[in-house]
Design goal:
The protein is mainly alpha-helical. It has two domains: 88 residues, Cytochrome c-like domain (Cytochrome Bc1 Complex, Chain D, domain 2, Orthogonal Bundle), CATH 1.10.760.10; 82 residues, Orthogonal Bundle (Cytochrome Bc1 Complex, Chain D, domain 2). Helices cover 48% and strands 3% of the residues. Strands 1-2 form a two-stranded antiparallel sheet. The chain has a two-stranded antiparallel sheet with strand order 3-4. The structure holds heme C (2 copies). The site of one heme C has 24 residues, from α2, α3 and α4.
Length: 229
């Protein structure tokens, strides 16, 4: 049996010991905050994006860092998952990306506002969340970087950023649309150009969106697609 004074000594020593450990851990956590939240990367553009995020109550439908509503996809790592170009195309006109099926609001953002929202989402994605969200989002297509090196030679940037969300090449990419291997054996350049300019005009009701490509983007895509024999 411990005497009363021994017990008190034991209590005091243990308390002091645990307090020190706790203090040490706290200091360690606080030291990591700047690195984890990478506050230095918070630019005025990121803050503007944050304002737009709050003003439009995006959290009424989406979660970020696990907070918000569960109606729409979790957006913490969305920039990594989708790529900036896909996001900008989508935010400019959510409906065009997925005609007739989508429930995401078109906010008619200006280009500058879209850049700010994407910068904010990119900043959120850069926070070290210890691996959160843990599960891959199964609703999302594979990341644009999933296309094999064979299929990327001379590939227009636009393809890797947008088209690959729905099409595969060499077995990698999305499966919303057909694989584009050997597409040059199925179409002429004129047909491809007309298709990319306005898929609905060629095949009404098709799930291929009008991506509102600029003339030079279309030209570059067609030239490259015609090399896929
Ligand atoms: C009324 C609900 C609603 C609100 C409010 C909303 N969204 Fe969405 N959002 C959706 C839905 C639903 C989707 C899934 C795609 C679809 O069905 O259109 C989506 C998809 C997205 C995506 C693509 C996610 C992915 O993984 O494909 C992004 C990015 C996005 N929203 C950003 C925003 C931003 C930024 C705001 C605020 C400015 C916002 N959303 C407000 C409903 C909403
Ligand atoms: C949101 C998904 C989606 C995106 C993004 C998309 N496509 Fe498609 N694409 C489709 C679907 C679905 C079809 C099949 C159309 C049909 O038969 O109704 C298709 C068909 C095609 C075809 C015809 C393929 C064949 O074998 O018949 C080509 C070529 C094509 N897309 C090129 C592109 C290019 C280039 C881009 C990027 C600029 C792109 N697509 C972006 C969904 C998409």
């Amino acid at each position: 049996m411990l005497s009363k004074s021994q017990a008190r000594l034991f209590f005091l020593t243990a308390t002091a010991g645990f307090s020190l450990v706790f203090l040490g851990l706290t200091v360690d956590s606080i030291r990591q905050v700047p690195a984890r939240s990478h506050a230095d990367a918070m630019t005025p553009e990121v803050l503007h994006g944050r304002e737009l995020w709050d003003d439009h109550n995006c959290m009424g439908c989406h979660t970020i860092l696990g907070e918000g509503a569960y109606y729409a996809p979790e957006l913490t790592k969305v920039v990594e998952r989708r790529g900036e170009a896909w996001l900008k195309t989508f935010l400019r006109d959510p409906e065009a990306m997925f005609p007739g099926q989508r429930k995401m609001v078109n906010y008619h953002f200006t280009d500058e506002e879209i850049d700010a929202v994407v910068a904010f989402l990119g900043w959120i994605g850069g926070i070290d969340t210890n691996g959160f969200p843990a599960e891959p989002d199964l609703r999302a297509p594979p990341p644009a970087t999933a296309v094999s090196a064979v299929a990327t030679a001379g590939r227009p940037e636009k393809f890797g950023q947008v088209c690959v969300a729905c099409h595969s090449l060499g077995g990698q990419g999305g499966n919303v649309g057909p694989a584009l291997d050997h597409v040059a054996t199925r179409y002429t350049a004129e047909k491809l150009d007309a298709w990319l300019a306005n898929p609905q005009a060629i095949k009404p009701g098709t799930a291929m969106p009008d991506l509102k490509l600029a003339g030079n983007e279309r030209e570059e895509l067609v030239r490259w697609l015609m090399t896929l024999h």
